[in-house]
Amino acid sequence: MKKDGVLILAQVDHLTGEELGFAIDQIMRWGANNVYVFPGITKKGRSGCVLLIDINPDNEPEWARLLAEELSIYGYHRVLTSHYCSQCHERICTVVVRKGRARLRAQIHVKTSKGGKGYCRVEHSDLVRLREQVKEKLKIGVSLSQLRASIESYGRPEAKDIIEIDVGA
Q1: Which of 14-23, 24-33, 144-153 is predicted least confidently?
Q2: In 3D, which of 126, 119, 122, 130 has the Cα closest to residue 159?
Q3: CATH topology of domain 2-84
Q4: Among 39, 80, 85, 156, which one is most buried in terms of CB atoms within 10 A?
């Protein structure tokens, strides 16, 4: 499957490290498909970085406005792309997270290669949402990597559609 896209390549030498962390969070909240930060040295010998922001092409005018108004990025390079996705099988699974007697049920999307061979991969946005639900409803912190490992170890194609995880007593 082919999907057209736009990569915004923005040079940044005016943001501190803390401001850059905030910018990454904002960029993802605004709906970027992904964002990468590459460190570098600018023409004046100052430290800087390049932001590579993957966006949907239809939203580029809004991105130009947000970058200028919110992050003082007044210009950027645009790279037209074609994203190719390998054929995969996506299914919805129910995750039951247990903490003692308490239970939390949630739906997640997992992907495997077409034909169902190999291991699965859980959608990151589902993982983030599940982590927040565990924190809110079960009152326990759990890392994204712990959740991912627990889910993906169950999530082979031949596995059941219900994945059970125990996060402590």
Answers
A1: 144-153
A2: 119
A3: Alpha-Beta Plaits (3.30.70)
A4: 156
Task: Name the more confident of 154 and 136.
Answer: 136
Q: Which two tokens stand for residue 4?
A: 């057209």
Backbone angles phi, psi at 76, to 5 degrees: -160, 165
CB burial of residue 10 (10 Å; 0-12, 13-18, 19+): buried
126-155 burial code (b ≥16 CB/10 A, e <16): bbeebbeebeeebeeebeeeebbebbbebb
Single pTM value for the model: 0.65
Distance CA 29, CA 51 (A): 15
pLDDT averaged over the chain?
A: 88
Question: Which uninterrupted H or E stretch holds 141?
Answer: none
Radius of gyration of the chain (CA): 20
* Domain 88-166 is found in CATH 3.10.20: yes
Residue 168 confidence class, pLDDT cut points 50, 70, 90 = confident
3-class secondary-structure state, position 62: helix
Q: Residue ranges of the domains in the chain? A: 2-84, 88-166
